[in-house]
Amino acid sequence: MRTSSSWRRSLGNVRSFVGNTLGGLRGGSNLASWVVAGTLAYFLWVKPSQDLKREQQEKAALAAASDPYRYIEKRKPIPDPQETGLIYGKKRETKESDN
């Protein structure tokens, strides 16, 4: 019987700790305070960082479009036909097994 009261007490301690950590509010006032805190956090931290990132991307796109003489790779490079990957040099010799 002692074990059941032990885990109930520890569960109560955990609930009390969580409640105190959240500010000691319960029910609707607790939910309302979290909504207000989340809204403030969004408008003070998240939205400005998203706006800044979007603005930087727009500036980069405008800068890329405004320079007509910049180099653009329009075709894929031709692969080297040699097996070694060297332009000059001896090809890798294949080993033939003698049976």
Protein model, in words:
With 99 residues, the chain is mostly helical. It has a domain at 29-64. The protein is 60% helix and 0% strand. It contains two helices and no strands. The longest helix has 39 residues, at 28-66. The termini are far apart. 0% of the residues are buried. The mean pLDDT is 77.
C-alpha end-to-end distance = 82 Å
Number of H- or I-type helical stretches: 2
The largest β sheet comes out as:
none
Share of residues in helices: 55-70%
- Overall shape: elongated
| Topology order in helix (H) and strand (E) letters | HH
- Overall mean pLDDT stands at 77
**Number of E-state strands:** 0
- Regions with little confidence, pLDDT below 50 for 5+ residues: none
Rg measurement, Å: 33 Å
Structural class: mainly alpha
Q: How much of the polypeptide forms β-strand, as a percent range? A: under 5%
Secondary structure: elements and pairs:
Blueprint: H1 2-21, H2 28-66
Keywords:
99 residues; mainly alpha; 60% helix; 0% strand; elongated
